[in-house]
Design brief:
- Four copies of one chain form a homotetramer.
- Chain A is α+β, with helices and mostly antiparallel strands.
- The C terminus of chain A is likely disordered.
- The two termini of chain A are about 25 Å apart.
- In chain A, the strands form six sheets. In chain A, strands 3-2-4-1-10-9-11 form a seven-stranded antiparallel sheet. In chain A, strands 5-6-7-8-12-13 form a six-stranded antiparallel sheet.
- In chain A, α4 packs across α5 and α9 crosses α10.
- Chain A has two domains: about 240 residues, Aminohydrolase, N-terminal nucleophile (Ntn) domain (Glutamine Phosphoribosylpyrophosphate, subunit 1, domain 1); about 160 residues, Rossmann fold (3-Layer(aba) Sandwich), CATH 3.40.50.
- Chain A is globular.
- Chains in contact: A-B, A-C, B-D, C-D.
Chain lengths: ~475, ~475, ~475, ~475
């Protein structure tokens, strides 16, 4: 999962600033690297590095990016790759037919194979980024194709995986969403142009008006203020939007496929309350991502909602955590219970998910010390049982607590009075508007897109080798 | 308002790390500068600079601070002074009788006079910090006094103002709270020592056990693991704890004078609901500080509580805000309405206060655009009508919207359907446990401590002159 | 002109440190970027950036590079390319047959053509560096070749230009010098391995023993402590070592093709004295590069040598020079005359060259103000009349003062009593040991290697386009 | 030893830039910290930090300093004090009668006593800088005095030691030189004002005209473009200019007390040749400071002068030196012999001094390896036998090789064929113009100013204690 954004206007102006605002709006989608490429009549300037938008994009960076008609931006979420500036996006590349800049969200399952094919032609790579492999494929296709649109369509026939990307050429801004629609992508309108964004919240942040989602398999091309759509890969087969976008990834104020994220999380909480009711005095959520579902649980159950935790908002990437022996302090520094909410109460704690159970064990301990009488943990995500090959970095399967343990066992392991997960079959009910189907592979091991190439040992080995450069 | 912290243990160990955790726990009290001083058997090491704890205190800083038996830390809130490293605290000073380090919260009303007195003896100052003036007075008193405790008591007879401070000498950790108790200060216990902290949340963050608040006028001295209390300035006269600590400053999970902050803010919301009820569909709070009172309002009124806003948590000090012409974008980048919560609803928005009305006007516009049908603004603070001389940096009196306008006028000015403030006489009711009285000067212009020296033109002039050095 | 260095040892050890020392020893050859790549049993780590060795290579960089059996380093001299980290060398690339790292000195005349050829196969480039084009060619050749040596020899058949490079593969360290021998390259011996270096001074700096120069056209391969030589491109045709290496580039303590640089510069000064004698009281040199020839001039003429200037050694890259109106100050800050040496004297000033005449005019003014009675300027380089296509960044031809002016005219233009240059036919006489012939194209416009591809407008356009990425 | 500079002009302009140029011109006098204070009609701005001018004073620093009528600058040489930003100068202090900024060169022998006196009045210090003690004394005196001049004269009656300082008040620039004239100080003229500088080279660097040296004991005051001189402490007693200024400290192009430094060092070399002749083939100097005397030795002896060493000019403060076991590499990296100059020759090596003999042993080894047949070391300074209390940081007495060893013993210890020092009685002969006498205490232990207070154990202890703050 990452964040992508593109803007195309008819006049030269401060498009870098819009990409900058979008980088803050989409920051939750990727915190490893970020960057912006600006296009002023075919002249591209790119600035990118490791870090948050606030670290990388300072005044000097914006000054150097300058003005233009188009810009794209990307926030990278680190999955299986070494985080360094060479892997940062956008990938800006001068090729024989022009220049392109590319920012991508998702994961291409057959990336290693595609890379090998290109390398056998002598193509050289400077990163382990799938965005560079994708760029290589686009350029390879562009050698024969009569336009970049054609090259994109040709390339899509070879890609297998979950991908939403924005592509900038000297004249065009192109947005692409994979045929399964695993990752979101939407279109917004400015008074003199368009934006393309991973989520609608960035459309709002740049003062645009939300138009619609890009359809699974659709290619949209914006040129001279006009939007053209290519639907060659769109069809009516069942789609597979990542269910974790609704559960955790997307920002609560975004609307994905017509469904407000906050509202959908409230629904998850309501369904959870129906499926796993328990008599209690207060419902609290684990901040920040458990709060919306907690409120849904409270609403459905009629049990009062309370603010149970204070999360320290100043703890960032550079915080120096306690040594092993004092590890218990860490959670106390990050999270503290609000005693008046939980003392002598039977407490329902709603979290968005339980992965290894370690975090749950810690907040349970805090609640116990603050005087909670009973603690019932409810997860708005179903139990994780397998890994994701489409861009989400879940722990390795063997560490997933639900893979080998029942709810009762987990309750005992983490010190809760009870634990319950949303049944996987309830997931889809939380989504009110017709949507392109949900991918629930991490809960069911039913993979909509064959992940086998990504599992080949060769692929791992290549990536390993490539990690060592800087 | 600032944050102070001190720790004294009997054995040499990583006390800097505890001060470091405390700096994160008290970060909300002061974000201009921060620093730590460590004392290892009388050898002091200090590290401090402009910025948040996360900016200033990196691994190298902690390495250089080393280990010791004692440490103090301070987070500075910038009030009327130029923020630079020379004003950063702790102030560590080698004087003829030893070394001291001092970290202070509050404001000394007669600071300029005290400074002038010292300067007439040839004392030189390197900052415009009141902490340096206080240090100068302590050292002056120490020349005659037989101990630092005696010097502290002697100095208190000359100080007028709101102050809580921690003072470290080669052998002792001393905590002092002014006789009116304007700023909070509390004591915590470690297995082999004590901590002193502005708020109880830092006691928890370092793994300590809360003991009690320091009494107004009390001086506590910790030496060799023993705590001694001097109560020369403690008496039963009405006290004046800053009411804004309950309304806004203190962290929700802290307990001040026996009252949980979250609970007290809930109470403020309940009293507000009783005083200013209105028929509506949902109660929302302005994040983060309006949420607790909003929940109280919802509880009391029976109107459902909702999550109405998404606040972008990545916008920090270095965010490059839009130029004037695009200023409206700024609030949209920082705050977005969650449409499903407010659309077609009659909305009560609870904020902690209304100062100039500009922020309120902005979030009202966002709510309108998100489809709110009616917007009723409720402030859990009474109307501001005058300035604070005790360390809170409220805008200059003439910009305070309530100074010259009624609730009806304000509603029209900011675009709300109605506006109402908590009546000032209700404030005290929110505080359940007996507390040392509340200072409500900014709402009533009744100043418990004569602020006249601070108003003298001389003082301003001196400060102005001193701003120009670096 | 740039500096390259490689080391290959039989045991894992701190080879990065040797490359680090070499980066300082060869710093004079390139000050734009620098970098090191370390190879530990096939795992490559690279660190490089814009700046001097002292800026780029700090403790953290060396720690991250770690230990290994081999390392290469490069100091980049910026010619016609934008200086940024993407152009920094070594170029470390993972290709389908392994990994390579490459550091290059010189200029490939047909680089644009080679790049276009590769791009037409879909190869993508991330820089405007000729080293990346060379890498691309090597990888292309390696696809078919059975070894990297074979790929190198195949690639040399396509390269036209002046190049000396070091190439590191998982098993081998390879050193290559172009068939004309335009740039120097030499071999040194360690107790357990070899080093390859642009100049012998780096061999000394790493504690090695100088073995011999690499022959023009030779390829040397070091593997498992054994050195193998491929001489396919070595022949007896006249060679063309850049004469500017002797005049200016190389370090005085280096020995190139058997000729000590200091001694050769002394010889240039002696020949200059014979060719252009003048009656005077003192001979001074313009520091630092004019000092050696000045001493030769003094020795030959019998006129006493004096220290005429003090050069400020603290003025570096970041010095903020005076604004236009105070430009005259700049030279005074950088260079001051030593009055006692020149006052009331007839002074001969020896410089290594006169390009535009601006610098000469400035130091002449300084000498006049210090009381020099007569000033006779002597240049140990012949007059520049045309540009260099082999890696030296001389000003554009039209700005070369000697292209359109006689010695008399120049003397008048710069305010000297007389000006004289070393006659171009004398150059070769300064070089005592048989050497591979000298390239004097910038003095004669006789280009030993056809530079026409570099002059094609296409090439310039491509480079222009590529400048804009970051 | 440090560098000080002051400028006073009648109109507001870019005086910071002049102080900036001076900081580069005087950089050789102090490389630990540097800083500038600008005075714009009584408003002072100061910028200072640890490092060279090139590190500390960047564009942003100059922008923040802004314009003014006056500025002072200082380059600090670290002697016996911890180098940190709190000790950096200028010391800018707001006192009850105004503001002052002070930059000092030298050492005050009774500094600890003066500090103690002030501390007993309650004065607090934030550094271990003698400049802060001096400031404290000036402010103390200013409380009673009717002007700063009067305060300066009053303070001089209490100071014992070697000091030259510049002092800036809202209206005046004041230059002070101690009655013994141990440290140099001179006056220059601008078209609309004056400069005061440690050395004349900075007068030239800012485009000024040298006027004269400040007399020992003189106080010069510049106000409104007029210079006034106070000579209360000037008298005809024997003076004591530090002889090391002529031998090593001052820049070769400076003129101190009428004597050109380069010329004086030539004279030292000539006297050395007369005192200690030896039959040889070439005379070389150890760069950079041995070169001038070497040329004098060559001139006097008639033996040819040669360039014997190449010094790597890129090795700076941040160079990471080899570990212990490879220590021998270090000298080879810094310094390399030029073989053609010394091979098979009898070599005279002139250095400015021999302290512990370690450096000498190293360059001798290098010369031997380069083939030198005989090596005769000559020192243009007499043998060091005792420490300096006036600001020069010579090693502790027991490490001085000449304190316990004869020339013959030293020759054997360092591996030279012979070693000889300039006889101390010859020193004065090198100085042609009448000068205020020379201090030769480090060669004779005859201290012109009683250094006893500096030897008191109390003083050391206080300084030790103060080292620990940051």
């Amino acid at each position: 999962m990452s964040g992508v954004f593109g803007v195309s206007r008819t006049k030269k102006q401060d498009v870098a600033k819009l990409a900058y605002y979008a980088a803050f709006a989409l920051q939750h989608r990727g915190q490893e690297t970020c960057g912006i490429a600006v296009n002023d009549q075919g002249v591209f300037k790119t600035y990118k590095d490791v870090g948050l938008a606030t670290d990388v994009l300072d005044k000097e960076a914006l000054r150097r990016l300058g003005e233009g008609q188009m810009a794209i931006g990307q926030n990278l979420y680190g999955t299986k790759i070494q985080v360094n500036r060479f892997n940062a996006q956008p990938m800006t590349i001068n090729h024989i037919k022009g220049t392109l800049a590319l920012g991508m969200d998702g994961a291409i399952v057959n990336a290693s194979r595609l890379r090998k094919e290109l390398e056998l032609k002598g193509v050289i790579f400077h990163s382990v980024s799938e965005a560079e492999i994708l760029s290589g494929q686009l350029i390879q296709a562009r050698l024969e194709a009569s336009s970049m649109e054609e090259a994109v369509l040709e390339t899509m026939s070879k890609l297998r995986g979950a991908y939403s990307f924005v592509l900038m050429t000297p004249q065009k801004l192109i947005g692409v969403r994979d045929p399964y629609g695993v990752r979101p992508l939407c279109i917004g309108k400015l008074d003199d142009g368009y934006v393309i964004s991973s989520e609608s919240c960035a459309v709002v942040a740049v003062g645009g008006e939300f138009v619609r989602d890009v359809r699974p398999g659709e290619v949209v091309v914006i040129e001279d203020g006009e939007l053209t759509s290519y639907t060659d890969y769109c069809n009516d087969k069942p789609k597979a939007l990542c269910s974790f976008e609704y559960i955790y990834f997307a920002r609560p104020d975004s609307v994905v496929e017509g469904n407000g994220i906050h509202e959908t999380r409230m629904n998850l909480g309501k369904l959870l309350a129906k499926a796993h009711p328990v008599d209690a005095d207060v419902v609290i959520g684990v901040p920040d991502s458990g709060l919306n579902a907690a409120m849904g649980y409270a609403t459905e159950s009629g049990i009062p909602y309370g603010i149970g935790f204070l999360k320290n908002k100043y703890i960032g990437r550079s915080f120096i955590a306690p040594e092993m022996e004092e590890r218990e302090l860490l959670v106390r520094i990050k999270l503290n219970a609000i005693s008046s909410t939980v003392k002598d109460k039977r407490v329902i704690v709603v979290d968005d998910s339980i992965v290894r159970g370690v975090t749950s064990a810690r907040f349970i301990r805090i609640l116990r010390e603050a005087g909670a009488k009973e603690i019932h943990v409810r997860s708005s995500a179903p139990p994780f049982i397998d890994e994701c090959f489409y861009g989400t970095d879940i722990d390795s399967p063997e560490t997933l607590i639900s893979r080998h343990h029942s709810e009762e066992e987990i309750a005992e392991m983490i010190g809760a009075d009870s634990v319950a997960f949303l049944p996987v079959e309830e997931l889809i009910k939380a989504v009110k508007k017709p949507c392109p189907g949900l991918c629930d592979a991490c809960f069911t091991a039913n993979y909509p897109i064959d992940p086998s190439p990504a599992k080949e040992p060769m692929a791992k080995q290549v990536l390993q080798r490539l990690h060592d450069g800087d």
